[in-house]
Design a protein that fits this description.
Blueprint lengths: L2 E4 L3 H6 L1 H7 L3 H4 E5 L5 H7 L4 E3 L2 H8 L3 E4 L6 H18 L6 E4 L8 H6 L5 E5 L16 E6 L5 H11 L4 E4 L2 H15 L1 H13 L7 H15 L17 H23 L7 H21 L2 H11 L5 H12 L1 H14 L9 H18 L2
Helix pairs in contact: 2-8, 5-6, 9-13, 9-17, 10-16, 11-12, 11-13, 12-13, 12-17, 15-17
Length: 370
Amino acid sequence: MKIVIIGAGFLGGDYLIPGYELLTSDLSKEVRAVKGNFENMEQREKELPFPLSAGNGREILKQFQPQMIVFSPPPDQAKEIAENTIFPYCKERSEQNLSLPEIVSAIPGLSADWFSEKSKLPISAAKIMPSMAEPIAGVEAGALGASFVSLSQNAREDFRQRVQTLLSKTGEVFFLSDHDVISLLAVKISSHLWSNAAMDICDAAQAYGQQISTQEIGSAVRFYHRKREADAQKSIYPCGEDSLPNWARHFLDSMENAWFSGLRQYTAKQELSIPLEEAERINHLSYEMNLLNVQLESREKLLLNIKHHATSGGLLERGCMLYEETLSGPLKRAVEQAIRSSSPNEAFLFLQDEIDGITKAVRRHGMNLK
């Protein structure tokens, strides 16, 4: 089938390539990608296995006539691009009694039904939130992937199967309501913030002559979580606390307990269409994958991952901003207190509610993008 990607960033242009390979016979002939401007154009052309152009989405759609549009521009530009690029093309096809393309959208704030409601056309659409699971430092993490999909009301079973195929290499695929997707995606974002926290802990410890690494933090936090949670995902890589000084063991044990308790507190208050047990299973997958990333990747790779995943106007960008505003400073001061006292402290009495609050704010941001 023919596919046009509108928004050729990391997700649409790179991460979903294994799915494109399953849906097409030749990427160079059956896939086209369009980015918004000519910045880094030459580099991106070298990186992608299909033709790339810039600023001409409507023309590419008309020339190429794809069966599927993968829609992944910056979230804060998505509505304008859809209304000025996709909808005019679909309207022309409708007036000519031609079939309309399916839309697979990676925009958190746009429901799958938004495309048909806004265009007044019977567009079948799916909103996808891929797991972003990749091999982590050579360790296959696909088993921890949890990708979310919500379908438009008019979506047929064959379209559902194509979306399933597109995401099949990203881990387990969950078909959820739109409300569920935003609510549980917010938990993924707050789990991702462990990367930010691990780097802050390292910096604060180093200021007091304590050398610990982000990898050691990730290993210990996974260890404490798995020790405490009977429902934690089956381990795919060893973890432990042995390399850490005593203050760090007490500190991270308390911190992990408060962090995941905040996620659980948030989830319990959401009105979900799925049982709470299934939601918590999804949360365990998201949490474990992000902690494994902290354990196995270098600090430099953690920073690069944040850069790739925190798209402009998106949920991770918002989560990182909230973390810096509310948690970064208090966390560094808590590290200082822990090193000075060499014993558990009360620094994390606030953390459970802060994580709950950040996750709620991320969810609200996602809803406001509509």
